[in-house]
Amino acid sequence: MEKENIKKRLEEIAGKEWVRDDAATLFLYSRDMTENEPHAPDWVVMPEKPEQVQAVMRLANETLTPVTPYVSGANVGGLTIPVRGGIILDLKRMNRILEINESDMYALLEPGVTFGHLRAELDRNHPKAIYTYPMAPPFTSVTCNALLDGLCNLSHPHGATSDWISSLEVVLPSGELARIGSAAITGRWVSRVPLPDLAGLFIGWQGLTGIVTKIAVQLCPKPAFLKRAFILPYSYSTAYEMMRELSWTRVLDDIAGLSWVAGKMMYGRHGPITRDPGEPGFILFIEYSANTRAELWSKTMIVNSLLKDFEKKGKTFEGPLDINAILRLFPEYTKLANFPTTLDFLLDYAESGGFTWVGSYGPTSNWTRPTEKGAAIMEKYGFPPLFNCRSMKGGHYGALRFLIPFDRRDPEVTKKLRACLEEICDLLLDEGFIPYKAPNWAAKKIISRADPGWVNLLKAVKKTLDPNGILNPGHWGF
Amino acid sequence: MMEFDDIRSWVVRCVRCGTCKFTNETYLPSCPAGERFRFEPFYASGKNFIARGIIEGALKFSDPGVVDAIYSCPTCGNCQTQCPLPHHEHLVDIYEALRARAVEEGAGPLPSHKPLLASLRQYENPWMQPRASKARWAKELGIKDVSREKARVLYFVGCTAALDPTLRNIPTATASLLQSAGVDFGILGEAEICCASTALRVGDRILFRSLAERNIELLNRLKIETIITSCAGCYKTLKHDYPAVGKIRPQILHSSEFIYRLLLGGKLKFKKEATRVATYHDPCHLGRLGGVFDPPRRILRALPGITFREMDRIRENAYCCGAGGGVRTAFPDWATDNVGLRIEEAEKTGANLLVSTCPFCAQNFMTGIEKKGSSLEYIDLVDLLSSLLRE
Ligand SMILES: Cc1cc2nc3c(=O)[nH]c(=O)nc-3n(C[C@H](O)[C@H](O)[C@H](O)COP(=O)(O)OP(=O)(O)OC[C@H]3O[C@@H](n4cnc5c(N)ncnc54)[C@H](O)[C@@H]3O)c2cc1C
Ligand code: SF4
Ligand code: SF4
Fold this sequence. Notes:
A: Uridine Diphospho-n-acetylenolpyruvylglucosamine Reductase, domain 3, B: Rossmann fold, Rossmann fold, 3 domains, 5-stranded parallel beta sheet, 4-stranded parallel beta sheet
């Protein structure tokens, strides 16, 4: 079909004002904050209802037009760059909070709902409930984050945000609509069990298998008491040992860390950053909560006694430093004390809008070596060794993420950056960590190392759901 | 005011994190352009990236959608409040510099802006009215003409309040209030030249500079100590934009600042009270971009009988009415729809009186209130205050 005809059909589906193909729009949707090569879509369409998403998918199938779903494009992996052109389906208008169910503790959301909006709704109207928040900018999608296995501030007790999904509504590449989880059977959005877990057909797939139009995510009761503290270990190995042992106490809601570089960036440092002699290597933050003061006190005792043991073992660290006390002295640390947050100090380090990373999940038994090696690789390429980590799901696995704010204006920097990212990606895979939110180049590396049976199954799933390969082509190695 | 070359180092700082799309911590919409059009080019990040595209040669002003996105923005500056990165304080400068470059390249302004600029050239006001009309509201009010008589204070009326008959209460109330407080003031009448805010906002810098230079020369020549203006647009332009062209000797105050001083000095005696519930809309050019938040609020709180209630988005976070930056001229329907959102927010407070301090906002609010059939009454702060000084 002629391009003009496709545009006409899209306008019939979404309404004339919600389809754009002007140069300015195509330019904006062709790139993100990362080093991934830009590529323009042919149209950007903004549906308002699942039926319109279905109609777009039917048209896309009929005309073999690629479709890339999009909410904020802040995935830090080039995942919404439409590498084969076609339609960007910007889901910002599908931003209704459909239900907050305090009784069954879930929130039913459209994909355009952001962390900021969910937080505001809970704070204003449901103060007894909380959700889990990433370090991502506040106006990024809760749905996308969950589908991308996000790591958030309650990931320690509850796992990646994909584990928080209790039901889904999905438009398949064919345009059919399917419900997943209890919503499919009883119309209640409470759980994915006890059923064949079809949510896995869409989680971690970067929008290659279906477009989620509704998501139910679990909520947690807001605790009466909350305590947050910083601990500053001097070595990476002490930090990780501490994180693992703290995880096993089963009393913490969050255990995460940032390398020393972040502390310097927080004070507005640009250009080369070096570690001062005697400077702690890690900023660990821990959070725990309780229903009563007595419970909080007991948890504090458990944490303190574990830290005493570390002291006795000769491990060097500062703290625990109560976050509220720190904030009074150094208000800059507010950025790490309340979520959602904006990591502006980090995003602006290179003063030119470029930001990328290699993030991964892997065994906490092997956190230290890839960290040390990854940091060395970053320094070799001239990037400050900025990384963060988080204990996930009771310490069963951990996140390790190397973050690089970079100068987008300099092609030499981009070349160096790509080499650095590749080297870190290979290192992580060698060390048993799997890159997450993987850009296409990283996905190819994952696939090249994968069990052939897994790869065949992956391909078969994609072929079955999307025989024409129209959803988000050019990603995940497809 | 920044030149296009000066914005280069700032536009690159935008990471497209999207934080500017909503208010920090309360997560309410902040960007009227984004709220209306939703596509990425219309948000602050969109305009930053368009600027970047132009600088890097990937986009041209003549490319479809570029001028459209640049001009679909009331330049309200709410994004400046929300953006956490260092370029935040230059965002409106960036949009205005983009518009100026678009005009230089013949791509801007929008066709509907051109008659305003032609009027500015011909009549020195954007409303296509002869100069003589500017003094009409003051006839027989016994106000000094400062171009002929000495006075300590110049009331710089501004074109909109002077020429729009539906806003006549603003200048007459301001004058009567100054008279009843015994202020030695005058006006320029038909000699008053437009501050040229319109030219600056839509990107015609040559016209802006020529009118600004004449105004600076005229205002410095007068033997006045203080200039007061009841228009938020004139205030921002004279006080914050003119310094890029030249220095104005007399101090510049918005009428709300001046009147607040009169009130503190015991110069105003209330004779009535108004048992009304009032809320206040911060005009972008007075509040966020002009730095004046408190005097209007303090006056409102001091008015006998008035119960004052704040809206959800106030002060730096105040949601723009949508009239500025050439939007009301180019996109009247959008401006009216947008002010409708602000009217709903005002209604939510339970107020029956919507008070502000800008004739341009006033026009938009009055249209919006009528279109929505809202029971709110719009009134300028000075008009409200002055009504309580009369028996
Ligand atoms: C500074 C910074 C810090 C961050 N920190 C964290 C962090 O701590 N933890 C974390 O988990 N993430 C983090 N992120 C990553 C990211 O912002 C989040 O995962 C975010 O929620 C992605 O949302 P988005 O709206 O930007 O998604 P987008 O980028 O728009 O989309 C993400 C992916 O989902 C697909 N998609 C979009 N809509 C749908 C749909 N309806 N159905 C199916 N697929 C869809 C897209 O095609 C794309 O592949 C961070 C990002 C930044 C910039
Ligand atoms: S203007 Fe500021 S807040 Fe908005 S996207 Fe750019 S960096 Fe983020
Ligand atoms: S100036 Fe106002 S309308 Fe324009 S981009 Fe900023 S917030 Fe949006």
